[in-house]
Design goal:
Length: about 425
């Protein structure tokens, strides 16, 4: 006992007593040991040893927005229908036929829409479009809208009546200069952004190796995978420089079809190896460039999924191939759900549910918005679509909005700024290089 006491006193005099007692595994009846659990208590804090108090990690804007949404609002975020008319607060004939006496603003509010898509019949003038997009953003209230269009340029140009006339991808690809693809995308993005549009369903990432292709053709940058990949990557970066969200389409590749998926269901007979060599490179390049969204194709690809379902409804293709193998973490959008290619086997409600189950986040141009909204709601409430699966899609959509500066507050376009940007001398000079 005397020997032990002497040892302890020596340890104490060297300042090591606390360390020695804390390091002892048992501690017996020591006053510093925890009364239960067999663990010694921590050493008494000194000013030098005090750790800063821990606080819960702050919620991100996306997490905060998600936590404040109910199920109806979350389901609404998935939908991007056509809107009819030219003003947010007026009822057009087509709007009347589809939604009754409801203005676009009321439709946005009723279904808690995450986005809308615009077409030429929504466009009269620069000032009118700015007023329209601003009015729809005001109607969306808590979560700003994705306001989208298909401004590929060339054959598919929804805003040709007010924007600079740039050539399509085929003409740009023929120049063989990816920097031109980037410059055109940046200029296009700036003009759309000035109008209040924030998502372009471009660039086309298909490799058009079939000269008889009735739906892609000159919409693609060409028929050489490596060249198309370089053009697509440059275009994605150009859109981003303009503050515009971009979309690579039509996954897994629509370039070798002789059927138009607007009117039928194409079948692509490429082997897996051919897909990897021909179709995949532009999509990989787009993902590497940070593309915001990838649009699915209404095509059957038996070597990637033998079920006979189009890629839009295929979990092996969208979740297995695009998500897991290519590593895409952004938004997966359907192609238009009013097209014949996706409506061959299932009714409209089932199509929307199956698309979500396959991995889709954004349901574009539903053929019957009320029916399809109710179908997805019912699937969530029954558990067929889990709450976790729904939250995954909403999180991706909110992340896209956050990344493009849309989540904090609804953007407001300026008619004066739009008049300055659209058809500017700089943009007209760029367009003139292709004449």
């Amino acid at each position: 006992m005397d020997t032990l006491g002497l040892m302890l006193r020596r340890i104490a005099t060297t300042g090591l007593l606390v360390t020695a007692l804390t390091a002892c595994g048992g501690g017996g009846g020591s006053a510093e040991a925890e009364p239960t659990g067999g663990r010694a208590a921590p050493a008494p804090a000194t000013p030098q040893q005090s750790a800063p108090p821990t606080t819960p990690a702050a919620e991100s804007p996306v997490e905060r927005a998600l936590s404040e949404m109910n199920v109806e609002e979350k389901v609404g975020q998935l939908f991007m229908p056509i809107v009819y008319g030219t003003a947010a607060d007026s009822v057009s004939g087509e709007n009347q036929a589809r939604f009754g006496a409801q203005t676009p603003a009321k439709v946005i509010q009723k279904y808690h829409l995450g986005g809308v898509i615009l077409f030429p019949y929504n466009v009269k003038s620069v000032g009118q479009v700015v007023s329209f997009t601003n009015g729809m953003q005001r109607a969306s209230k808590d979560i700003p809208l994705l306001i989208a269009t298909d401004q590929e340029n060339g054959l598919v140009s929804r805003f040709s009546s007010v924007m600079t006339t740039f050539p399509g991808a085929g003409r740009i690809g023929a120049e063989g200069k990816p920097e031109l693809a980037g410059q055109v995308a940046r200029s296009t993005g700036r003009e759309l952004h000035a109008l209040g549009v924030n998502l372009d369903f471009a660039p086309v990432a298909d490799v058009n190796i079939n000269p008889r292709n009735p739906v892609i053709g000159q919409r693609a940058y060409g028929d050489e995978p490596k060249k198309v990949a370089a053009m697509v990557a440059a275009a994605v970066k150009g859109f981003h420089e303009a503050g515009m969200a971009s979309t690579a389409k039509h996954f897994p590749g629509h370039g070798d079809t002789n059927v138009d998926s607007h009117t039928g269901l194409p079948v692509i007979k490429h082997t897996r190896a051919e897909w990897e060599r021909i179709d995949a490179p532009p999509f990989k390049a787009a993902i590497d460039a940070g593309v915001d969204a990838v649009m699915s194709a209404h095509i059957v690809f038996p070597k990637l999924d033998p079920s006979g379902d189009p890629a839009t409804l295929s979990k092996p293709i969208l979740t297995g191939l695009l998500r897991k193998e290519l590593g895409f973490k952004g938004v997966i959008s359907t192609d238009a759900l009013n097209m014949a290619g996706v409506r061959k086997k299932y009714d409209d409600g089932e199509i929307a549910v199956r698309a979500v189950l396959a991995g889709v986040d954004l349901l574009l141009m539903p053929n019957d918005l009320p029916k399809q909204y109710r179908a997805v709601m019912a699937a969530v409430k029954s558990g067929r679509i889990s709450k976790e699966r729904l939250d995954q899609s909403v999180t991706r959509l909110l992340t896209l909005k956050h990344n493009r500066g849309l989540l904090a507050e609804a953007p407001t376009a300026s008619a004066e700024e739009a008049a300055r940007v659209l058809r500017s001398a700089e943009h007209r000079r760029l367009a003139g290089r292709f004449r």
